[in-house]
Amino acid sequence: xxxxxxxxxxxxxxxxxxxxxxxxxxxxxxxxxxxxxxxxxxxxxxxxxxxxxxxxxxxxxxxxxxxxxxxxxxxxxxxxxxxxxxxxxxxxxxxxxxxxxxxxxxxxxxxxxxxxxxxxxxxxxxxxxxxxxxxxxxxxxxxxxxxxxxxxxxxxxxxxxxxxxxxxxxxxxxxxxxxxxxxxxxxxxxxxxxxxxxxx
Length: 200
What we know:
Elements: H1 2-5, H2 17-25, H3 29-47, H4 52-70, H5 76-101, H6 105-115, H7 118-143, H8 152-168, H9 176-189
Helix pairs in contact: 3-4, 3-5, 4-5, 6-7, 6-9, 7-8, 8-9
């Protein structure tokens, strides 16, 4: 699709104003929509392997927008300029947030697992959630063994450790169980990435 439009396929990390302007300037707006839609779907697909909360959130947002577009609720130009381009910017901003917090991709995945609850964010704030996420990664890495994702005893011990960390940092008690399960699910997604500190 990119070749047909005469545009070099970009990497979303470097998706810049120039590329977005090229898309806006394409005379075939439906082609521009397909280009950006494909790029965004590919980026979300990559996230499904590492970030449970973000991949689910972005996937639902994109599918909802595509459905509205297909139902004729928004036209092609509006879909491109008011939906897809801002959506690309939101994904880029999400990547920057982890970097600004000084978190690697695994720590940021745990951060988003905790951040999914708005009241936890307002009560604890970014810095506390950041420290919890870092501690969770250390705990998960030290607690996991080969085949831990299928060993219930290891998962039970990990759940206890996660609860202890959340309690220690004042995570809202009524939200802890959901957070524990989200963290465990996130840890399973990251199972192959729990060994190297510098991987990204």
